[in-house]
Amino acid sequence: NWNMAGFRDAEIGRIRQKVGKGRVICGLSGGVDSSVAAKLIHEAIGDQLTCIFIDPGLLRHGEAEQVVATFRDRFNIPLIHRDASDVFLGALEGVTDPEVKRKTIGRLFVEIFDEEAAKLGGAEFLAQGTLYPDVIESVSAVGQSVTIKSHHNVGGLPENMKMQLVEPLRELFKDEVRMLGRELGLPEEIIGRHPFPGPGLAIRVPGAITREKLAVLRQADRIYLEEIRKAGLYDKIWQAFAVLLPVRTVGVMGDGRTYDSACALRAVTSTDGMTAEVYPFSFDFLNRVAGRIIGEVRGINRVTYDITSKPPGTIEWE
Ligand code: XMP
């Protein structure tokens, strides 16, 4: 007999009690989780909350602009926007190992939060939109000595972090977070948004990351999502994204030979991200997307569709 309005009220009480008159900074990513966490905390403590949006240079097309427009302009929540792409991409230069990517990104997010918090004159609390599946995947990874993936918003925090964590969504699954978001009056376009991983496009470019590769990936990803929305399929899918593969293949374009990157498209259904099924697009749909990507994105000349379920695959490629 789960009651979201009750959960909201209880959680608002818990946040007030924990935080007192302290300052909270919330790492806003633009995703559902941090958006719901930020709105909930803002309802609890108002402008004791400042949101810090760090753009790591690893977001999708148009996302940074959208975050600022939504939270600063629409919700009037105090928001600091820090473009940290130079720092992140510099630190990731030449890094190929997925876990090193995650840890590097997690560490930088925390360091930059600390910096921004210091500029604000200090904050006692750091709020995060950590969900239950993040918590249990990390805990079981510790217990089993085999780490599948360290989620940077749970496992990657350094022990010397100065701030205490506020994680009001820790007991919730994704569908419950969406219910809570509706309860809080967040717009459907945010609530219905596909999850996006903290390490962002870094784990969708297997191998070393460059600005050029990210730019190519962003274009393919934008076209793919555009076609998914146009076909009315966005809400039927848990996550959909393009992956830029670290392999070049030969193609033919007009009279010429091409030698460019291949990309993979991924789309899955899921209820909590723990297991996932491939989304069964029509052949026509896939053909249309592939045609557009190859025709419009310079640097990609081959498109594949990933038909791996989770398990044994994972949703992300890294
Ligand atoms: P996997 O790839 O493990 O992903 O099947 C399960 C869900 O988690 C997201 N994901 C992450 N989210 N930090 C995050 O915040 C991470 O390091 C991370 N890795 C994967 C993934 O997008 C999917 O929703």
TrEMBL record:
One of its GO terms (molecular function) is GMP synthase activity. Keywords: ATP-binding, Glutamine amidotransferase, GMP biosynthesis, Ligase, Nucleotide-binding, Purine biosynthesis. It comes from the Bacteria. It is an enzyme of class 6 (ligase). One of its GO terms (cellular component) is cytosol. The keyword tRNA-binding does not apply. Its EC number is 6.3.5.2. ATP binds at residues 29-35. Residues 2-193 form the GMPS ATP-PPase domain. It catalyses: XMP + L-glutamine + ATP + H2O = GMP + L-glutamate + AMP + diphosphate + 2 H(+). The keyword Transferase does not apply. Pathway: Purine metabolism; GMP biosynthesis; GMP from XMP (L-Gln route): step 1/1. Homodimer. Catalyzes the synthesis of GMP from XMP. This is GMP synthase [glutamine-hydrolyzing]. The gene is guaA. The chain holds residues 214 to 531 of 531 of the full protein.
